[in-house]
Structures are given as C-alpha cells and as structure tokens.
Amino acid sequence: MIGDRTFKNKPQPRNTSVGYLFMAPTIIILGVFVLLPILIALVLAFYKIQILGEFNYRFNGFKNFTRLLNDDRVWIALRNTVEYVAIVVPIQTIIALGLALILNANLKGKNWFRIIFFMPTVTSSAVLTIIFLWMYNSNGLINSALAFLGLPTYNWIGDPNVALKAITIMNIWSTAPLFMVIYLAALQDIPESLYEAAAIDGASWWDKLVYITLPSLKSVTFFVVVMGIVGTFQLFDQSYIFSRGTGGPDNSTLTVVLLIYQYAFKSLDLGYAAAIALILALAIAITTLMQRYFFSEKAN
Prior knowledge:
Pfam families: BPD_transp_1 (PF00528). It is found in: Cell membrane. It contains 14 helices and 2 strands. By secondary structure, it is mostly helical. The protein folds into 2 domains: about 1-45, no CATH class; about 65-300, MetI-like (MetI-like fold), CATH 1.10.3720.10. A two-stranded antiparallel ribbon has the order 1-2. Helix 4 (about 70-105) crosses helix 13, helix 6 (about 125-135) crosses helix 8 and helix 11 runs antiparallel to helix 14.
C-alpha cells in the first residue's frame, strides 16, 4: 500500500510536460524582455559602441565603470535618487498603513473611501504628472490655496530647492494607495480571536497595534518596503516630464534612470549607459538584501 501510494503521488512525465507547456509563454516573455536585456546590458557595459556613421564597437574593459567615478552628473543623479528614496519610502509606507487601519475599522461608507483613495493608482502616471504640473504652476491651484491661507508660495517647477520635493509629494500621494490595499488585505487576514483574547486581558488599542497588528504585518511590510525601494530607484517619467528630459532646473530633478536615458538615447553612448544601469541594479539588489537582513533580525 505504501509503495502504491508513493507511486501514485509521484509526478508523471506527461503531467510535467503539460505544466511546462502552460508555463512556456511566461518563460518566453521573461526571457525576451527581462533576461535577454540584462545579458545585453552586461555585455555592452564593457564595450565602446559607435552607432552614428559607420557602426563600430571595441572592447573597453572597465573604462566605462572608472569613467562614472569621475562623472559629476552621475553623483548628482545618485544623490537626488537616494534623497528621493529616503523620503518617499518611509512616508508612503506609514501613510499606507495608516489608511489601511482606518479603512479596516467599521466606518460608514468605507467602500467608497477605498475606491476614492485607490483612484490615483489606476490613473496613468503621465496624466497625473501633467495634472500636477498645472497645479504646481505659479498661478496654479496649490499656490492659490497657499496664498489664500496667508502662507508663502513657491516656484515648484523652476526652483532647484523645491522641484524634487514637488515630485516627491506627487508620488507619495499617487503610490501610497496601492500599498494601502496590500496592507488592508493583510489586516483582514489577522485572526479576530487574537484581538478578542487581548481585549479580555485588558489590552488597549495601542497594545493591540504594537503586539498583534504590527508583528503580524512584518512580512507584508518587508514586501511593501522592497517594492517601494525598487520603484523609487527607477524614477523616470515624472522627472522627464517635469524637466522636459533635461533633469533641471540645475540638475535638481536628474535621477539615475533619467541619466541613463540621456546617455543612451541622446548621446548614444550605449556602453556607458549600460554601465550606469548595472550599478543601479547592483544598488537596488544590495538595498533589498539589507532590508531582508533587517527584517529577519527584527523577527529574531
């Protein structure tokens, strides 16, 4: 009987081949649009490539990587990107968790609030950026509201000290609802019996939050933080639209991905652009591993 049961549970070759057949479209798409570009970028990073005129390429060794160490624009873009990530990720995570806690309570009309909060997430990023450009105009909605309240107004688009912060505010507003939905799903998965037992022991709302809710959301928070870091490191479209592709004013909205675009499609320096892209990918991977270590230490 044991032998028969083992034989029945053993996967059959035909079933395995059918499984791979269903997986084939996904594998092909990932291979063509993810793995292949990574391999091409890895190769291009070590070459000097000339596209205009007669196509030419030559092995360049590590010169593309040593070149970026002395490129001031690389360091400016990296500084802007790190500043943007350091501000957006914590704030959007806290706001997402706060909104999820509010919507998880027994509020009247909470389903409508969920729809309203989630609308920015399903709206095109380019459309949202154009709307905020209008709002950030010197005579736009935001400055008009600030003037009405007697507060100082800002040149949101033209001031180097404010331009990146304007993009930061816009992206926090538009991305926090996505993570709110993720948190909301996780909150509804926490057993109600835990809260009932804590209430019997006289636990306050704060005690329930600290000792039940937050520990139960640890893995979800790790996912939210990692996805937030990966997304913010790849900031491009908002910066491109705000600065019309220049990264201005005074390189204040220049991000690493925008810099890669400029070198690849404006300067046509594909090898150097690929080198910067690999450094960015390495930075994202290291940051993700650090987050994984941090959350695992928290678990212990």
